[in-house]
Design goal:
single chain; alpha/beta; 6-stranded parallel β-sheet; 3-stranded antiparallel β-sheet; 27% helix; globular
Length: 234
């Protein structure tokens, strides 16, 4: 299949938990992160849901409430500012809605969305619930228990082929707030084209994907500087 042409006016942002950390939402793999405090297999797998759905709901109800109370930070808002001049697509591993509330018009959620619930028997039955909890006994139109609209470990990532296509045509690519440790999402950087301008915003000084320039620092501090440059000093 022929590759789509690079669009110099298109920016694709691949984001992870680090962009929401300045808003007060815990990351997953850093010291003191979520997976230091919970066992993945007990709250974030289909097996956990089958064994103890109440515990899984409690975990995600807590996270949903925290996300609803959080506010977008300067990193989210900076990305939205790029829409003044560019076509911008945000591909996020995050399940919060801070990109949307920060002003981004097009967001692809690879790992699901906290503000939504879905049927356990029909994955096409998805409901907006905002910051409300899901309780045992809350049912879909077909009578099955509602579950979080989240991609658990062992489940298929959402909208991945769409994300790949967006990455292939980007003239600029920003990777921010992700360790690139979780696949297949991390593999999207391999779809970035040789001729695209590629930037990684990272707190740590460490390995970077081939062809990426690294800007060290917190997303809420670094992204406004990058965006100002790309918007021509505005």
């Amino acid at each position: 299949m022929a590759k789509p042409p690079i669009n110099p006016q298109k920016i694709v942002v691949l984001s992870g938990a680090g962009i929401s950390a300045p808003s007060g939402l815990a990351t997953f793999r850093d010291g003191g992160g979520i997976w230091d405090r919970y066992k993945i297999e007990e709250v974030a797998t289909p097996e956990a849901w089958a064994k103890d759905p109440a515990r899984v709901l409690d975990f995600y109800n807590e996270r949903r409430a925290q996300a609803a109370a959080a506010l977008p930070n300067d990193g989210h808002r900076a990305i939205a500012e790029l829409e003044k001049r560019f076509e911008v697509v945000v591909i996020t591993q995050n399940v919060d809605d801070l990109h949307e509330r920060g002003g981004s018009g097009r967001v692809i959620h690879l790992h699901g969305e906290l503000r939504k619930a879905r049927s356990t028997v029909d994955p096409t039955l998805v409901y907006e619930i905002g910051g409300a909890p899901i309780q045992i006994g809350d049912r879909c139109a077909q009578g099955s228990q509602l579950r979080p609209h989240i991609v658990w470990f062992g489940e298929e990532v959402q909208r991945f082929e769409e994300a790949e296509e967006e990455m292939r045509s980007a003239g600029k690519v920003v990777v921010v707030g992700t360790s690139l440790a979780v696949f297949p999402a991390a593999g999207l950087v391999r779809r970035a084209r040789y001729g695209a301008e590629k930037v990684m915003v990272d707190l740590e000084i460490g390995p970077r994907p081939y062809g990426f320039t690294v800007m060290h620092g917190s997303a809420d501090k670094v992204l406004p500087t990058l965006v100002k440059r790309w918007l021509g000093g505005e």
